[in-house]
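Researcher: Next entry in the queue.
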Amino acid sequence: MFNDTLKYLRRKGALYLFIIPSMVYMVIFKYIPMYGVRIAFMDYLPGMKADRIKWVGMKHFISFWESIYFKRVVFNTLSITVPSLIVGTAIPILLAILFHQSTSKMLKGLGQNLTYLPHFISTVVFVTMINLFLSKEGVINSFLAFMGFEKIQFLAKANLFSSIYVITGVWKSMGWNSIMYYASLTSVNPELYEAASIDGASKMQKIRYIDIPSILPVVIVMLILSTGHLMDLGYERVYLMQNSLNISKSEVISTFVYKRGIVNMKYSFSAAVGLFNSVINLFLLIGANTLARKVSEESLW
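Model: Structure for this entry, 301 residues:
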């Protein structure tokens, strides 16, 4: 058995070399930082000697749970991530099917380039574009005025923040996220479409009975992975879009942690909230995988 393993490694060893950079990345940036999670159970300050650090148990977790901001930031986070999960999954699927069904190579190439491009725009530039588009003299308000409607201060209205974030987020990522679904569609056996055409199937029937079942395993896996990040909303774009008028709806867990933990130097508190987030995401991932395994044959494990 040992000799067989050596023969296999000699034959396939070069392929395993490609895994090494990923493993090094995971160890350095994912596993080693786990040691620092212990400060969530301490009253930690930078430069403090190890023997002077006070262990406080669940103090910082309780402080977060009992905070008047807890319900608000959790609700605000979910009000953004849940619609983003639903819409951000549906639109790329529709886009991939549209590209796959398109018979014009020129239109397909143009559409792919236009939808992929926003993904490569930096967050700061992207938010600047949003501010310009939604400003009182921006493109959107100019169109509303042309149509006879009153101009709206979009980012000044707290109730619109979640919708604006979700829509702009989908716009930024829909092209890039559609690549995997499009790749799945291109691997479908062309004979299936030929057989469907012979049987008189319409384009919608081909989509329903060939395209959708073909990408369903990928959709389920991507949904499971996305569910595992449901509470993990990056703070950069939210923080840049925040202002004093929409703060009641735009204050999410990540921005709350940044302001309280990093800006105010409450490192133990921020570590506790981050650990809380990670544990909830872990349970969501396990729950989503279990549900997927029960209702379908596809799951991560």
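Model: The domain at 46-102+158-295 is CATH 1.10.3720.10 (MetI-like fold).
Researcher: Noted, moving on.
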